[in-house]
Design brief:
By secondary structure, the protein is mostly helical. 49% of the residues lie in helices and 10% in strands.
Length: 124
């Protein structure tokens, strides 16, 4: 799985955003739990449920878009992932928390970034 600095957002619902690039990725309960892990629990309620379809590029901040892409990674659990500035729009504390979570996945990942804090997050 490749995660660029500006994530690709499909036309479709929150569910379809998360499922991309596969057809399914778990139950509604699982999706909500992972949204909570990345501080996006408000999205389904704010936009009318998991099947609402606003123009995500227009309604989500850069950090929210990056966290939504991280939900994909957490749910799909690919064998390998390349993260290219994938947390650049997040604050350092959120970045550290998310990398700690990624370290517990069975995914081997390569992370590219410019922040010195990233080195500490990955070493944790």
């Amino acid at each position: 799985m490749f995660m660029p600095q500006k994530p690709y957002l499909v036309l479709g619902s929150i569910r379809q955003q998360i499922q991309y690039p596969r057809a399914s990725c778990g139950s509604d309960k699982t999706i909500i739990e992972v949204l909570c892990e990345v501080d996006l629990a408000h999205l389904p309620e704010q936009f009318g449920g998991l099947d609402s379809e606003p123009n995500w590029v227009d309604v989500l901040s850069g950090g929210e878009q990056q966290r939504l892409a991280l939900v994909r990674l957490l749910l799909h659990r690919p064998r390998f992932a390349i993260l290219d500035e994938a947390t650049s729009a997040l604050d350092v504390a959120s970045e550290d928390r998310l990398y700690s979570r990624l370290a517990n996945l069975p995914t081997t990942f390569i992370s590219i970034g410019h922040r010195p804090s990233l080195r500490n997050s990955i070493s944790a």
